[in-house]
Amino acid sequence: MITLPGTDPRMIANNLTPYKPTHPGEVLKEELEERGISQRQFAELVGVPHTALNEILNGKRPMSVDFSLRVEAALGIDADLFINMQTRYNKQTAQKDTRLLKRLDVIRGMRAAMAL
User: Fold this and answer.
1) How far apart, in Å, are the Cα atoms of 113 and each of 17, 20, 106, 110?
2) How far is Cα 61 from Cα 43, in angstroms, rounded to an integer?
3) DSSP string of the chain, one letter each residue
4) What are 30-41's pLDDT values in tens digits?
5) Angle at 58 between CA 52 and CA 63, to 5 degrees
6) What kind of architecture, by CATH, is found in domain 21-115?
7) Which one of 46, 57, 75, 104 is CB 3.0 to 4.6 Å from 70, fit for a cystine?
8) Cα–Cα dist 82/45, whole Å
9) Which residue has the higher pLDDT, 116 or 68?
10) Domain spans of the chain?
11) Which pLDDT band, with edges at 50, 70 and 90, does 112 fall under?
């Protein structure tokens, strides 16, 4: 990739990440609303407690592979969509964790020192 002098590579459109990552539960919540399915109905259908579903829909609990497969069976939406979204959400959230970022800098420094 060619960048102009003084251009921050993080500001190139292909390299941008959302300021606030989208939790897959938000997408599922919109889908249920669009289909007119209540949270209680859906929780019963997929066999999870209503409180657990509500936490997923509000981004307070991750969407597991098991749950994504249940959603696929219930709504016909490919589980990979939610699994991949959750992975991206986890990565973007981790990349904003200052303690982790400091630790990664230490690891990179140690890697560089070992390469000498």
Assistant:
1) 30, 34, 11, 5
2) 15
3) ----TT--GGGSGGG---SSPPPHHHHHHHHHHHHT--HHHHHHHHT--HHHHHHHHTTSS---HHHHHHHHHHH---HHHHHHHHHHHHHHHHTT-HHHHHHHHHHHHHHHHHH-
4) 999 999 999 999
5) 60
6) Orthogonal Bundle (1.10)
7) 46
8) 18
9) 68
10) 21-115
11) confident
Q: Which residue has the tokens 């597991």?
A: 64
> How far is Cα 18 from Cα 40, in angstroms, rounded to an integer?
31
Instruction: Kindly state the tokens that stand for 95.
Output: 């990349």
For residues 31 and 77, is the Cβ–Cβ distance under 8 A? yes
